[in-house]
């Protein structure tokens, strides 16, 4: 009884801290959200378009999908993660409607960084941020919230590497959370890869005695490349996954069976790894392409 009460109290405290109600479009008529998007949009435009030099390759691919994709079709963008200001600055390039709260992305954010207190939680909720608990697993409640974004046909952005990496190295092994969202979405989202560089210089992790600067830096060069949508034949992939031999020794997470496909934990593991490997491979090719473009 005491353990149950403690768990309930912890859940209530988490709900109070993450303020999901503040992220609803109709909260106070939508005015607070519009104000936050206007302010953050102006900040991002200033840093991406005025204080730094930003070059975007294939920007039309993103603009088209953000503003004119088929109704009810969700968009899932994925990118590398080089600094704490990747989002929103990566959307601040010229011609992008970053201040439009209706078109704006939802984004997965670290709960321990962005949702540390009620004020921060409220502001990030208005900015269409979904908190993710590190170590909470791919079936944590917040991931269900992210899934709701896709179910509603909205745009969700994810950093599937799961952490900031400021060295110029190949794309790291991806976490499975992004793949799990694609699989569980009733309408398979359009998956659009993005790779960028330069934000690690705008907000370096270890500038002042091992700390970040108090504000983003300026006079830097930012490069962004947007790829083509990654296609997944979900029917075939799920059929292959369902044929994976059942291995009870791998069922250490206690994942729920995915219905109506009936995919058990072994099948899910195979499927998430297969899809993550494909996304990682596409992002790595984009990274190499961006490096070549920067040399010329």
Automatic annotation (TrEMBL):
Q: What SUPFAM superfamilies does the annotation carry?
A: Glycerol-3-phosphate (1)-acyltransferase (SSF69593)
Extract one GO molecular function annotation from the record. Answer: acyltransferase activity
| BP-aspect Gene Ontology terms | lipid metabolic process
Annotated Phospholipid/glycerol acyltransferase domain residues: 75-199
User: Where does it localize?
Assistant: Membrane
- Sorted alphabetically, which keywords does the UniProt record give? Acyltransferase, Lipid metabolism, Membrane, Transferase
The record's Pfam families line, in alphabetical order, gives: Acyltransferase
> What cellular-component terms does GO give this entry?
membrane
User: Which family is this protein grouped under?
Assistant: Belongs to the taffazin family.
Identification of the protein by name: Tafazzin family protein
